[in-house]
Amino acid sequence: MFKIAISARNKLEGVVTKIEKGAVASTVKIEISGSTNLTSMITKEAVEELNLKEGDKVEAVIKATEIMISKE
Amino acid sequence: MFKIAISARNKLEGVVTKIEKGAVASTVKIEISGSTNLTSMITKEAVEELNLKEGDKVEAVIKATEIMISKE
Amino acid sequence: MFKIAISARNKLEGVVTKIEKGAVASTVKIEISGSTNLTSMITKEAVEELNLKEGDKVEAVIKATEIMISKE
Amino acid sequence: MFKIAISARNKLEGVVTKIEKGAVASTVKIEISGSTNLTSMITKEAVEELNLKEGDKVEAVIKATEIMISKE
Amino acid sequence: MFKIAISARNKLEGVVTKIEKGAVASTVKIEISGSTNLTSMITKEAVEELNLKEGDKVEAVIKATEIMISKE
Amino acid sequence: MFKIAISARNKLEGVVTKIEKGAVASTVKIEISGSTNLTSMITKEAVEELNLKEGDKVEAVIKATEIMISKE
Predict the structure, then answer these.
(1) Which residue among D71, E37, E59, F4 is buried most deeply as judged by most CB within 10 Å?
(2) Does a structural domain hold residue F4?
(3) In-domain check, residue B69
(4) What confidence category does residue B1 fall into, taking pLDDT thresholds of 50, 70 and 90?
(5) What is the mean pLDDT of residues D46-60?
(6) H-run or E-run covering C45
(7) Of the candidates E39, E65, E68, which has its C-beta nearest A45's C-beta?
(8) Which residues of E lie inside 8 Å of D (Cβ-Cβ)?
(9) Could you list the residue range(s) of the whole structural domain that residue F47 is in?
(10) In the A/F pair of chains, how many CB contacts fall below 8 A?
């Protein structure tokens, strides 16, 4: 799969499983492995411009500063 | 493993594989599956207060608004 | 009150005073002292999964990189 | 105290209690009440351009999307 | 035009060209030069409190940690 | 110039004018027009993996939720 050359350090391949649209925001569910799902909130405009739909192969892209760490 | 009750929608279990400390910031590498690694940049203070070290089981925690989506 | 072990450096105890739900996003008002209120925008899904309601004791959790500083 | 007209919803008045500078990043501690402190990580350039020093009265400014909520 | 004294490093002057309001979020289009437009998603409350409307002269304010870099 | 297909709504073309590296973080200055410069703080690892250097043509990429609005 393609890899964009961007400073954001984290890229996880997955498949879109659900899209929910609000007036200006949208949530997109991405299955990145059999048991792990991500929830993304982006603009509705981005969903439409990327023509996102269920079943699409996508990459979740995340900046290093946005990965918090939790430990028991 | 524990699950913290927090509004952030995304939690990925992993193991710390590398920690690099700067004067005030640090980067932490987390292996979340055999072939997938995350890079986190947090404060050095957080690394020390959580007593993070290689081999620790942790959760990467990410807000929904921080998951961007890229499509070919 | 509980303290979650997370890299995010900032935790402010408060009480939920108002919740407003949109189709996918929600705003939550949190009173952290007699005269200070916070406004949080999270996913509607998070509001529902945490079963957030007015009067709930909560913690506002904020990463160090998200605290900007303004000076006169 | 001054209030800047900015879309960021959250402003907390406080006093700078400690500044730690790295090569490009810095951490700034802000006491917002007798028992509550915030940790901010900003660029070293911002610390210098604002001429931040211990004892300064400042406002911590935080966007609504950056306030996570944790509940027991 | 005014310059707010804030740690956020990036300020771009522009004119509001379009506002779209959802239940709790809103998108605001800002023209920063003849051919360049920005899209901002903020709370509806911020739009109303700043009394934002088409034609307003504004500044887009962005933290240094939010500027990603992409290279061919 | 290339346009990456990513949900982030804002892309500004520019030229790298200065790079300053810390132990784990780096700041990158980008000139997006004759009089406007951006400051980005990313990981040192990203600077090295993208092989960023002064004079490089790049795109600054910014999510819609990271564009705050300030008004006089």
Answers:
(1) E59
(2) no
(3) no
(4) very low
(5) 97
(6) helix C44-49
(7) E39
(8) 4-9, 40, 42-43, 45-47, 50, 61, 63-64
(9) 14-62
(10) 36
Q: Does residue A62 belong to any structural domain of this protein?
A: no
Calculate how close chain C gets to A72, using CA atoms only, in Å.
7
| Complex ipTM value | 0.95
In this prediction, residue D33 carries a pLDDT of 86
User: Distances in Å between the alpha carbon of A48 and those of A25, B35, D15?
Assistant: 11, 31, 45
- Collect all residues of chain A within an 8 Å Cβ-Cβ radius of residue B58: 69-71
Do A64 and F43 count as a contact with CB atoms less than 8 A apart? yes
Number of helices (H), then strands (E), in chain E:
1, 5
Report whether pLDDT(F35) > 50: yes
Cα gap E14→E17, rounded to integer Å: 9
- Counting the structural domains of chain F, the total is 1
Closest CB from F4, F41, F65 relative to E64: F41
Q: Residue A11 has which token pair? A: 């890229």
Please report, for the domain that includes residue F33, its CATH number. Answer: 2.40.50.100
- A1, A2, A3, A6, best to mutate vs chain F, most F CBs in 10 Å: A6
DSSP state of F29: E
Instruction: Decide if D30 is inside a domain.
Output: yes
Cβ(A62)–Cβ(B56) below 8 Å: no
User: pTM of the predicted model, to two decimals?
Assistant: 0.95
Q: What is the dihedral of CA C19, C21, C24, C25, to 10 degrees?
A: -40
